[in-house]
Write a structure and sequence with these properties.
The structure holds three protein chains of three kinds.
Chain A lengths: L2 E6 L1 E2 L2 E2 L3 H9 L4 E7 L3 H10 L4 E7 L8 H15 L3 E5 L2 H14 L3 E5 L1 E3 L4 E6 L4 E7 L4 E5 L14 E7 L7 E8 L12 E5 L9 H10 L3 E4 L1 H5 L20 E5 L5 H7 L4 E6 L12 E4 L2 H13 L1
Chain B lengths: L1 H39 L11 H13 L8 H29 L5 H4 L1 H32 L8 H26 L14 H7 L7 H25 L7 H10 L32 H9 L5 H5 L1 H4 L6 H14 L1 H6 L10 E2 L5 E2 H6 L5 H5 L6 H14 L8 H11 L30 E4 L2 H5 L1 H16 L4 E3 L9 H5 L3 H18 L3 E4 L2 H10 L9 E3 H10 L13 E3 L13 H10 L35 H11 L4 E4 L2 H14 L4 E4 H8 L1
Chain C lengths: L1 E6 L1 E3 L7 E2 L3 E2 L5 E3 L1 H17 L2 E8 L3 H9 L5 E6 L7 H15 L4 E5 L10 H9 L3 E10 L3 E9 L2 E8 L3 E4 L11 H7 L4 E5 L11 E8 L7 E2 L4 H15 L4
Parallel strand pairs in C: 1-6, 1-8, 6-7, 7-13, 8-12, 9-12
Antiparallel strand pairs in C: 2-5, 3-4, 9-10, 10-11
Helix pairs in contact in C: 3-4
Classes of the chains: A alpha/beta, B mainly alpha, C alpha/beta.
Amino acid sequence: MTKVAVLIETTDNEVKAANFGVLTAARGEGHELYAFVVGADAQSCKGELEKYGAAQIISITGDGADLSAQPDLQAKAIIAALKEYQTSVLLALGSSKGNDILARVAAKLQVPLAVDCLSIDCSASTVRKPYFAGKTIATLKLNGEYFICAIRPNAVEPVQAPVEAEVASFTAEVGNYDGLVIKEVKKSASGKVDLAEANVIVSGGRAIGSKENFDILEQCAAAMDGAVGASRVAVDEGFATHSMQVGQTGKIVNPRLYIACGISGSVQHFAGMKTSKVIVAINSDKDAPIFNKCDYGIVGDIFEIVPALTAELTS
Amino acid sequence: MQFYETTYIPVKSIVMAILLMGGFGYFFYKVKHLVVLMNSVQGERGYGADRLGERIKVLFTDILGQKNVRRKLMPGLAHTFIFFGFLAVQPHSLEMMIQGVFPAFSVASFAPSFFTLYLQIADILAFLVLIGLGYGLYRRLVLKPGYLTNGMDAKLIILFTSVIILTFHIYNAFHLALPSHGFDYSPCFTVSVVVGAILNLSSWSESALRIGFEMTYWVHILTILGFMIYIPGSKHLHLLAGIPNVFYKPLDIEKPMIKTDIEDEDAETFGLSKIYELNWKQVLDLYACTECGRCEERCPASKTGKPLSPKDLIHELKVELMNNADALIKKEDVESLSGLVSAEAGPIKNDALWACTTCRGCEDICPVNIQHLDIILEARKNQVLMEASFPPEMQDTFSSLENQSNPWGFSEDTRADWCKELDVPLMADKPDADILWFVGCAGSFDDRAVETSKAIASLLNKAGVSFAILGTEERCNGDMARRCGNEYLAQMMIAENVETFNRYKPKRILTGCPHCFNTIKNEYPDFDARFDVVSHVDFILELIESGKLKVNAEYPGKITYHDSCYLGRWNNIYDSPRKIIAALNTNEELVEMVENRDNAMCCGAGGGRMFMEETMGERINNVRSLQAIETGADTVSSACPFCLTMFSDGMGDNKGTQDVKDIAELVDAVT
Amino acid sequence: MKVYVCVKNVPDTAANIKVIGTNGFDESVKFLINPYDEYAIEEAVQLVEKEGGEVVLVTVGKEGAMATLRSALALGSHRAILVSTDQQFLDSADTAAILGKVIGEDGPADIIFTGKQAVDSEGMQTSYRLAEGLGIPVASDITKCAVGDGRVTVEREIGGGEKEVIEMTMPCVVAASKGLNEPRYPKLPDVMKAKKKEIKQIALADLGLELSSDMELVSLEQAPERSGARMIEGSVNDVVAELVKALKEEEKVI
């Protein structure tokens, strides 16, 4: 039986929901699942984790340093845990943190790593992931002692498989390392997600009508951990700031999902988001040029549809 | 009387001789300095007196005929009066000067009937000067238009000139009152006689008349000499510089941008960065400027609150030139002179430099044919090539042009996708097509412009024209990169298109966009690609007039037409689109916007501005769209994809309800 | 300071990628510097402009990489090293080993910059393997970098509007993200000068490395062509339900 370890990402001792999809993928065909928890109270995570099949929950600590502030030591600790529990597969959420830790682990173990996976096959040691920003899907075969993958958040639908979990502690002898230390975590000035690298952008045009109405888009974007953008017209009218402008003379963005609300779709705007993987257009004008360029189109009132969309996303 | 003859006249003679020598001497010294300065700048460009016959004709129509000056009617008339009157008075003043030194000299003595005729004409023309000057004062004291430089210089000139004319009349009046020596002045002066009556000269004693006569003489002569010395340092230098500047003007409306030799390994700099890099003709431009402000009045940037004024540009450069005259003439350390373009200081501010839409309104209206764009475009070249300084939003546009040969960065292999479902052959499949239709970036990628392309394709097929497009072999024509100063990128793209053209050797090239039209027709020859290029408006008119396209319906409603700069002022095409519209719309007459034809206001997208942010003042396209709305027409038509976008946006912003259509779309709807 | 920048020659993100055969693609599209590497180059050049030293570009690539290196050299770097290979996609462990060897022999490096990921294979790990191989620290997704006395302080994006402030000892590897700086536009004189800058070409075989190729690209599939917009109709609730379902299950973008 294959033993699979899943590195769990937590916020304030709570398991991030996106981990459940990873756990689901980890379960595969009768795998023995180990949930590695670092820097959080494993007991408080037990309830959520066991719903998704994590029979063993291992709380990993270091013998000196705080592993949350020391990613290299955390990687070493995880490696020690992999060896201790003989887990030959290591999965994690393909978030910024997950990618970082897995890369360190893979580099130290000198085994291959696949990130941003859409699906994995443990028995065949293959993954499917995008190449060329999603224009193609690559199937990769990883040949190594360990099969290590970071899974794209929400790529795998979470399915419950409740078990009774056991919680154990593991202290890795990793010592200290002063080559790299995380000094602090800052919130960005606006507290908002930056447009430049956002995976999801909800954008508004002239039809939004006012600065206040942009809040509707903020809420929708927040539901997807996304950022809010604006067309040039919306910026001119003062509904949004120039830093939010998407387009030829604003920011060029390449999100996975771009939702254009009340934007007509001039070529100047389109040039700024043309590499978006999926474009959704919501506009009350059925002849708006953007409908020729989108993947999904909805003709309707943005003030009805967007809040409904937010509700659907948060339900 | 005795004192007069024996002492005063000889003294006068000596004094006059000294004054004349001094005055003229100083005048020529100053003019020579100006000529030396003009020849000391190091810019190289050939300006020849080619097509001499045409140039001499220009001297007659433009200088003597004052044709361009009268494009603005009232000031133009006033200037024509001043010009002719002033000219008319000169021989008389010359005679006065010679007489001052040689009292015996008198034209009347050897050509009395000619002299009489001359004086009759001169007297009337001189009075017209006063009328002209009166209007000038009215403009400066009452109307005070914003674009008119209204300083001391102008007022002094009006003062000088009025004194000269008035003393001319008064002097003549004295001639009438004084006993004459053999020549009868009475039939000569229709105006001066009135002056004499006003001064009641008939009641003056002879000695009083003599004194008055001589005093008038001195005032007249001293004013002329003073004026003469004043001219080289004032805007009245245009008296001297205007004539050669008009003589050397570009004779054709079509004007390619200067081709920079970027392969030149010895070149230390490209484009225009410092004052010493101007060429002599550009210095002559600076000298010739009359500060009339017509360029500023025309400039769409000036009109909408941008910091660009073509008049100020010329003036600031002139000041820069004069301030550094010594260094330039001695050729001392000119490289260390500060650059012309900077963010805050002059002479050319960054914001002003990039505000230009290259509409050529300034060059078109200038009565002395100053070529403002040569300066602006060369300065942009320097900023981009040498300083990599340009509005930051252009960086992505430049990269897109370089990597995917279109300004928006769409994948170049989708360039022909717009006509996938249509009957549009490729040159690769039909290399013998009669027409190579160069679709252009907008026509291929911009949804709105693609509608125009589809209309053109439909018309070509309806008319049974043998045509083909380059498809993915087509590159951006290079206009945008060039107008934005990126000569390196532009030449790269032009070279690729030239290679393709030379491979296919098309019989005729049709363009759907005036920018493509202008560049391929007028600038590609510099790159060894000389072809018969026709714009879609001219070609559609040909098809209609030859019967290949038959109009079978009326295009409904009133139509107004916007003259795109790159068809109109850049290529003198104003009539073809109007003829087309007349053919489509026989019930309604075309409604003209208040500013039309050569006076048409730019839509604001040229000069790369389409891809830059407009952050200052009003939006040019909004102002122009308002003009369209004000015509009350149902449809605004144009013949350029940029204009189309500008009007569409402008309609939206002004909540206008007019349809915005390309000429091709109009024709396609009714044939 | 001796600053190395590892760059990759990749297809323009604006280009359409056409899959050929099982795992190949049409390489006749426009290739250019990996966009994230541009930020790396700019950071390196600004650092050396301030502190003195040289910026050396290192790349592993095919023949086409030469032209890309020339463009990159016009941005202020001093010289470049190209390790020639015949494949666009190399196992990142192998790439890191090659880069490490070259830098090791040419160096020592004071600091190494690279982009956080390549826009074609998007492996996001070469910088980590390079650092591990050289025994130095690494931080990725960097949007701010300050080099002090033997220490480097960086800010790393972790999503949700938050950043980590990280301190590393030098030498180290900094993997740049978008927004680290404003990459400059090349001036024409620099483009001309770049033609004469040194690009040392090394054949892969001459490095004497044993490459593992533990990661195999088994196949590449074209993402399905968009046939036009799918219009979603119905009541507001139906419409959003259908949209969210499609985005989650079919598109997998949320």
